[in-house]
Amino acid sequence: MCGRYTLHSRDRIRLKGAPTLDLPFEPRYNIAPSQKVLTIGDFGTGLEPRLLTWGLIPSWSAGGKGFINARAETLEEKPSFSDSFRLRRCLIPADGFFVDTSRRS
Predict the structure, then answer these.
(1) Is residue 105 pLDDT above 80, yes or no?
(2) What is the pLDDT averaged over residues 6-33?
(3) 58-85: b or e for each residue (b if 16 or more CB lie within 10 Å)?
């Protein structure tokens, strides 16, 4: 699972069949959870870019503790992610990601 990623090449962000988007773009090399990240999604008026906070705090969370990763194999079943997975998807462009190699088995 990824805890940090990079986005530094604007040229790689092209969506087939979509209009050219005016992206709020600045190269970033160490994007971390809880920061604002570039997303592209249909927020009700067609595809548009938005800066959203990386992380998900479920509505039922009492302590405000959120998540940054989900397992693909249980995404539809877990209460933390199921509604968002069905109803609120977006694309998060990235050039690369960091892997923690200190936890090798």
Answers:
(1) no
(2) 77
(3) beeeeeeeeeeebeeeeeeeeebbeeee
